[in-house]
Amino acid sequence: VAFGGQRLGGSKLFGVQLNDGYTRLAAEDGMMFASVHPHMALELIYYLQKIKYQGHLYFDTFPQRTDPVKEAEYNILRVKQFWRAAKRLDRLGLMEGVLRRHDALGSLEIVEEVLAVERQRSRRKQVVEAPPLPEDHATEQQ
Predict the structure, then answer these.
(1) According to the lineage, what is the superkingdom (predicted)?
(2) pLDDT by residue (tens digit) across 86-106?
(3) What is the rounded distance in angstroms from the CA atom of residue 33 to the CA atom of residue 59?
């Protein structure tokens, strides 16, 4: 996707459909973004940033067993996490060296590190913003 966008000049790529799934020929599982292939998802976001992509990002998932609103919120959260992680990769100049050296292990280590930082950041934010549990209300009123 990003390569095609770069070849077209970046501004010609209008929208990118984000989802995930198991790689089966002629199948689209429509799963949540980065749920199966987080490394590939981060690479996609990284290259979208490299070409200065300004188009639309949208989700094409099929929530059959989950609340569709919660799934959409999760997809948005994941894209924001991966966007920040990709910015960190670029800002620290971490990816260019491992790509130039074809260092697969180094690439995996860097990706795991930046994704772990984003997971920690999200957990801290969820703890701060988490509403009190129902039993907490009863305790507060006594």
Answers:
(1) Eukaryota
(2) 999 988 888 888 889 999 999
(3) 8
pLDDT band at 135 (very low <50, low <70, confident <90, very high): low
Which amino acid belongs to residue 54? Q
Contact at 8 Å (CB) between 19 and 59? yes
**CATH 3.40.1110.10, domain 2-130, yes or no:** no
Say how far apart CA 122 and CA 18 lie, in whole Å.
Answer: 20
Distances, alpha carbon 92 to alpha carbons 18, 35, 65, 97, 116, in Å? 26, 26, 39, 11, 16
In the chain the first and final C-alpha atoms are separated, in Å, by: 58
The structure tokens 């609103």 sit at 69
Alpha helices in 8-129 (DSSP H): 38-50, 68-91, 94-101, 104-129
pTM over 0.70: yes
Place of tokens 């990709």: 86
